[in-house]
Design brief:
Radius of gyration: 18 Å
Number of helices: 3
Shape: elongated
Helix content: 25-40%
Strand order of the largest sheet: 1-2-5
Structural class: alpha+beta
Number of strands: 5
């Protein structure tokens, strides 16, 4: 599995062309091996939720899914701190996704853990 991240920025200007700051963008996409794609298809995991968002009332709402990361994610934000935070959330989600794939590979076999 590969996570491909692209960061970009563009200047914001007023109608009169005055500089009004910068908008940052983050694009992320997961590329899977053919074996990993087969696992996602076999276990119908494209709808599996990897991240959650908080609603204004405190409810936990689904965010990024396996299928969403496979298709690609595009976000725009007004500050670098938010970009870095969102990037970290996606990296963490990809680690969880990789763990999910590893578990899927173990069905029909056994795992031996020595202590």
């Amino acid at each position: 599995m590969k996570l491909i991240i692209e960061r970009d920025q563009r200047d914001k200007t007023s109608i009169l062309g005055k500089h009004k700051g910068v908008t940052f963008s983050l694009s992320c996409k997961v590329e899977l091996t053919s074996e990993e794609k087969k696992l996602v298809e076999r276990y119908q995991a494209s709808g599996h939720v990897l991240t959650y968002k908080s609603a204004s009332d405190g409810a936990r709402l689904p965010g990024q899914t396996v299928g969403g990361l496979m298709a690609g994610v595009y976000q725009e934000m007004d500050d670098v701190g938010t970009l870095l935070n969102n990037e970290d959330v996606i990296k963490s989600a990809c680690q969880d996704f990789k763990n999910l794939l590893e578990v899927m590979k173990t069905f029909g076999g056994q795992e031996v853990i020595e202590f």
